[in-house]
């Protein structure tokens, strides 16, 4: 299926300050640091941020987003709180979402460049 994903960022250090605490809440840590890219993951880099110095903010209406799996609703709450504390903006507070086939708990944030990142879990209770 999917091995890894990456997002473009206009300022690598600013984005690292955003992503490190937000992704840590989901168990992903910084594993690779290079001059123009940083890779986060659990055992190998699954999520990359790549410097695109001339990048303009991602338009909200682009519809693009990346969803990361969490183990618990508490991880999602922590992801959302860390993202907001680190310069992100909420695009959907943590909570249950209506869905036709499963219980779906998620939160959505926008990183400093407007990339839409979701964290999701499927609680059984």
UniProtKB/TrEMBL annotation:
UniProt xrefs under InterPro entries: Glyas_Bleomycin-R_OHBP_Dase, Glyas_Fos-R_dOase_dom, VOC_core
Ranges for domain VOC: 1-122
Listed PANTHER family: BLR7706 PROTEIN, GLYOXALASE FAMILY PROTEIN (AFU_ORTHOLOGUE AFUA_5G14830)
One matching Pfam family: Glyoxalase
Protein name: VOC family protein
Gene3D superfamilies on file: 2,3-Dihydroxybiphenyl 1,2-Dioxygenase, domain 1 (3.10.180.10)
């Amino acid at each position: 299926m999917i091995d890894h994903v990456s997002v473009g960022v206009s300022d690598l250090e600013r984005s690292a300050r955003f992503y490190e605490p937000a992704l840590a809440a989901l168990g992903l840590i910084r594993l690779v640091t290079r001059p123009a890219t940083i890779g986060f993951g659990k055992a190998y880099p699954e999520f990359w941020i790549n410097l695109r110095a001339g990048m303009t903010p991602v338009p909200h209406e682009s519809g693009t987003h990346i969803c990361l799996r969490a183990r618990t609703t508490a991880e999602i709450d922590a992801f959302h709180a860390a993202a907001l504390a680190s310069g992100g903006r909420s695009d959907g507070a943590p909570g249950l979402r209506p869905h036709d086939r499963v219980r779906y708990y998620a939160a959505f944030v926008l990183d400093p460049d407007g990339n839409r990142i979701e964290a999701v879990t499927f609680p059984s209770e």
